[in-house]
Design a protein that fits this description.
The chain is built from twelve helices and eleven strands. With about 300 residues, it is an alpha/beta fold. It has three domains: about 90 residues, Winged helix-like DNA-binding domain superfamily/Winged helix DNA-binding domain (Arc Repressor Mutant, subunit A), CATH 1.10.10.10; about 100 residues, D-Maltodextrin-Binding Protein, domain 2 (3-Layer(aba) Sandwich); about 100 residues, D-Maltodextrin-Binding Protein, domain 2, CATH 3.40.190.10. The strands form three sheets. Strands 3, 4, 5, 6, 9, 10 and 11 form a seven-stranded mixed beta sheet that branches. Strand 7, helix 9 and strand 8 form a beta-alpha-beta unit. It is rod-shaped. InterPro entries: LysR_HTH_N, LysR_subst-bd, WH-like_DNA-bd_sf, WH_DNA-bd_sf.
Length: about 300
């Protein structure tokens, strides 16, 4: 058997007790053992290490040799590591430590980093891994169990999930400030449908919402679409006059505030949907997942852009 596997915590604690109390008899009292039992622990430790650890003096006192002091330092390191391990286990059991993978649809990247920062400040020993993708990618991640919690719009039909609303999610149609439709208070449907729409890729939740809205107000009238892969590119395209776009209001707060973009006006706009926090129904809710879930739920959407 390797030497380190033969060494026990009891042997190391017996050595520390002798060092702190000066004799085997005093050490035995502290440990609640008999002096012969402590002596046996120490002799076994010395035998395992092949060196003398305790020097016995004529006065009856005992002290550590240089080798004994080296082993005592190792014992202190082991004791500290065990204390740290126990605290980490307590934190894990209490949901105050661990790792949680949070999936967020692309639009959520405008608020998710600040949410994760809040979580880090509140629970510094919890690591929240953020995964951002479009709606199809986020649903696929749920199906593949590569994320544990998700923030998205309309919950998917598959996989089966448990979902709760955490805040309003308004969608608006944006245009450059000098666009002709920006001057109208109630834009006719046919005027809107004559415009070119800048849209996200297939699989995007915003793209799905836009398609349903235009099909509804136009009764199937065809319209022009230019597809772009990100909200930032869409905003730049609209500001350049390439077209108009339906987009999450949470992605254009700064542009609207600064006047670089405007919202077009119709009685049925904005379209207000909900943000949902969800997880698979069959997910095993560990304490740390519950801590993160409960924290996000309790925020009641305060982290969403205003």
């Amino acid at each position: 058997m390797p030497i380190k596997e033969a060494i026990t915590i009891k042997q190391l604690r017996a050595l520390r007790a002798v060092a702190e109390n000066g004799s085997i008899t005093a050490a035995a009292d502290i440990l609640g053992l008999t002096p012969p039992a402590v002596h046996t622990q120490l002799k076994t430790l010395e035998s395992n290490l092949g060196c003398v650890l305790i020097e016995r003096h004529p006065s009856g006192r005992s002290s550590l040799t240089a080798e004994g002091r080296a082993v005592l330092q190792a014992e202190r390191t082991v004791d500290t590591a065990l204390d740290s391990c126990i605290e980490k286990l307590r934190a894990l059991k209490a949901g105050l430590s661990g790792v949680v993978v949070l999936g967020v649809v692309s639009t959520g990247k405008y608020f998710a980093p600040s949410l994760v920062a809040r979580l880090r400040d509140e629970y510094p020993d919890i690591d929240v891994i953020l995964k951002v993708g479009n709606r199809d990618m986020t649903i696929n991640a749920l199906q593949q169990r590569s994320i544990e919690l998700a923030i998205m719009g309309r919950p998917p039909r598959s996989p089966a999930v448990q979902a709760e609303s955490i805040g309003d999610h308004p969608h608006v149609i944006i245009a450059k400030p000098d666009h002709l439709l920006a001057q109208l208070d109630d834009i006719p449907a046919d005027a809107l449908l004559n415009e070119t729409f800048i849209a996200r890729e297939q699989g995007s939740g915003t793209r799905i919402l836009m398609t349903r809205y235009l099909d509804r107000i136009g009764n199937g009238t065809p319209y022009r679409i230019i597809e772009m892969g990100s909200n930032e590119t869409i905003k730049q395209a609209v500001m350049a006059g390439l077209g108009i776009a339906m987009i999450s209001a949470h992605t254009v707060t700064e542009e609207l505030r600064s006047g670089r973009l405007v919202m077009l006006k119709r009685p049925d706009l904005p379209i207000v949907r909900q943000w949902f926090l969800l997880h698979r129904e069959d997910l095993e809710i560990t304490p740390v997942i519950e801590t993160v879930r409960a924290y996000i739920s309790e925020q009641k959407g305060s982290f969403l852009p205003k």
